[in-house]
Known about the structure:
Elements: H1 3-42
Amino acid sequence: MDWVPIVFITFKVLVFGTGMFFAVKWHYDQGKKAKNEASRSQMPTERTPGASK
């Protein structure tokens, strides 16, 4: 029965490590997405000839 804490602690570290990885990745992607949308909104839009105003 000495192996039970080792298995549970290993499982806990893997689950929390995976969760932390995806949390950091999600926040990084959200920041990149917000930065991209902010830069896109500041760019002047191209107008096609003959398009109505």
